[in-house]
Specification:
Elements: E1 8-13, E2 19-23, H1 39-54, E3 57-58, E4 67-70, E5 73-76, E6 83-84, H2 88-108, E7 111-112, H3 114-119, E8 130-131
Parallel strand pairs: 7-8
Antiparallel strand pairs: 1-2, 3-6, 4-5
Helix pairs in contact: 1-2
Amino acid sequence: WGSCIPSLVFGADLNLGRYGLATTYAGPTLEDDASLLTPDNYEQVVSAVRTLHAAGYVHGDLAQRNIAVFNGKATLIDLGSARRTHDTLEFERELQQVAELCRHDISSTKFDSPFLLQQFPSRASKSPDVLVY
């Protein structure tokens, strides 16, 4: 999975019919601090989602609360709803969801990613300060 999800540190059966899981610290989420979103880590989020899709999975719960940023690196967290699929429409919907959930942050910082411009040309900012290509 590379660097798109936190590394597993510990997993164990707690003898209660449940499992415990510990991962490396992924950082605060975009829900905690929307200003963490930059053009670079936005593209990291898109890359992470595509990595899951290439392995045949959808995240299943993409939201700002499930995208963490630490030291400039974006990571997907909370894969409890992830599931296997080969439905390309689900992959497309999830990529669209990433663009939409990050749209507010992108417009508030006045930059547009090429991915966003391709997916939603009518919603592109009319006067961005910076246009990233």
